[in-house]
Amino acid sequence: VNTPNSGRSVVVFHPVSGQVKKNLRPGFWHRLMNRFRKRAGTGGYPMIVLLGPAEEKHREAFEASLATGEDQLIYCPSGDRLMSVLDEAILFIGHDSGISHLAAMLGAPTISLFKASDPVQWRPLGPSVRVIRDSISEDGLVATVMQTAVPFIPQMGESAPPLELVV
Question: Which of 6, 32, 68, 110 could form a disulfide with 104 if both were Cys (CB 3.0 to 4.6 A apart)?
Fold first, then answer.
């Protein structure tokens, strides 16, 4: 398991997959990123938002949601750049998507959100993967993601409702 001392230095979000039925609303992701931004313990970890061609229509909204000069949106990274970003991730959060699977296989601590597909069959495989099913309110889901992030970024320490995890 990678820890904050293992050279990983960013929190990576992949908020939109190529399949709309798998995606949570962009508003959910904006709220989640705001919660990460407000947590004092995550101040040392800039946020990166990864988007690809299927997410072009969301690009401006996500660019606008990045508040600090250290946060960045990376659009259509080359394979080498994508691998580099995932290697730097102290935490990766995304939908059931190819990039989530890649992050998990590369050993990035991964929280994968499942909405329409079966996590028992399709969960990412890797040494530090947590799967959350979208079966609660968006507020509850934000709180659950924040609580699930604590083992990866321990200085966040926040209480939240019980987790619905598939491990």
Answer: 110
At residue 61, φ and ψ (nearest 5 deg) are -65, -40
Residue 138 CB contacts under 8 Å (≥ 6 apart), including other chains: 24, 25, 27, 28, 31
**Average pLDDT, 10 consecutive residues per value, the chain (167 residues):** 58 83 82 80 74 82 76 90 94 91 94 84 90 82 90 63 41
3-state class of 66 per DSSP? coil
Only one residue has tokens 């040494």, namely: 127
Structural Rg of the chain based on CA atoms:
14
Whether pTM > 0.90 for this model: the answer is no
Exposed e or buried b per residue across 135-156, where buried means at least 16 C-beta atoms within 10 angstroms of its C-beta:
eeeeeebbbbbbbbbbebbeeb
Which among 157, 148, 139 is positioned nearest to 34, based on CA atoms? 139
Beta bridge partners of 51: 75
